[in-house]
Amino acid sequence: MSVIKKQLIGMLLSGLMLVMLLSGCGPKVYNNGTYIGVSTADDNGYAVAEVTVKDDKIVDVKLTEFNARAQEKDMETYQWEAAREAFRQLPGRFVGRQDANIETYSGATASSNKYITAVSFALEKARKTPQVTTQYFDGTFMGRSDGDDKGYGIAFVTIEKDQIKSVRLLEVTSEDQFKDYATYPYTTVLEAKEALEKAFVEKNSPEVDTYSGATNSSQKWIQAVSNALQAAKLK
After folding, report:
1. What's the rounded Cα separation, in Å, for the pair 176 and 145?
2. What is the pLDDT of residues 5-46, one digit of tens each?
3. How far apart are CA 53 and CA 194, in angstroms?
4. Left, alpha or beta for 131 (phi > 0: left; psi -120 to 50: alpha)?
5. How many helices (H) and strands (E) does the chain have?
6. What's the pLDDT tens digit per position in 147-204?
7. CA-to-CA distance for 178 and 175, rounded, in angstroms?
8. CB of 137 within 8 A of CB of 232?
């Protein structure tokens, strides 16, 4: 085959690939469907994004934000106007995109970043070829247990390369207040808190034994850690 013919064939193939890309016929990045992403957490809570993808584009986003006690915020009555506006406007900014790289909403940077992270995690779950190859996303994730007449447990679990690096345990009372461990009178619960925080890290798992004398608190914390890990899970 002559050099000229080879060049012509190369030009034709390049042109064909360009046409395919421009027409949307190139390799797909995402699977169609709806995916849930949970953001990393801080002491003010976390966000969840329900992202629908079709033909490699975001076509719908539903956002939810949770407060410091892992309770869903009512964004219709939330006191901070900037946060309410970010909640209303940001879903539309994601639509039509292939990524989560939007600007944060002025005055609601923390909430915006949680929404962006949640959407990016949802998109990672939608990828045909994942970029994240670990079982869990890196970061700190928040989990909450079921409640009873004494309240419920909360866990902040920090994960790096599928390893639990640290765990912080809290409890919310039936009066919807955090227990003040500095003044809490039951030393067995304080001992359980310290022991379980270490045990989860050592075992790299929520499957640890309950602490004798603090079974109720232990069971709540075990469930909270399990739920935090579920939030962090890639698939």
Report:
1. 14
2. 443 344 444 444 444 444 555 789 999 999 999 999 999 999
3. 43
4. alpha
5. 5, 6
6. 999 999 999 999 999 999 999 999 999 999 999 999 988 899 999 999 999 999 999 9
7. 9
8. yes
Question: Could you report the per-residue pLDDT of 70-79, keeping only the tens digit for each?
Answer: 999 999 898 8
Dihedral sign (CA 71, 121, 170, 108): negative
Residues 229, 3: Cα–Cα separation, whole Å = 59
The answer to whether 137 and 130 are in contact (CB under 8 A) is no
Single-letter code of the amino acid located at 157? V
Separation of alpha carbons 47 and 36, rounded Å? 11
The token pair at 88 is 């209303």
Q: How many CB atoms lie within 10 A of CB 142?
A: 27
The separation between CA 3 and the C-alpha centre of its own chain, rounded to angstroms, equals 54
Query: What are the strands of the beta sheet with 139-144, ordered from one edge?
Result: 139-144, 152-160, 163-172
User: Which residues, at least 6 apart from 11, have a Cβ–Cβ distance to it below 8 Å?
Assistant: none
Per-residue CA distances from 13 to 5, 6, 29, 152 (Å): 12, 11, 22, 62
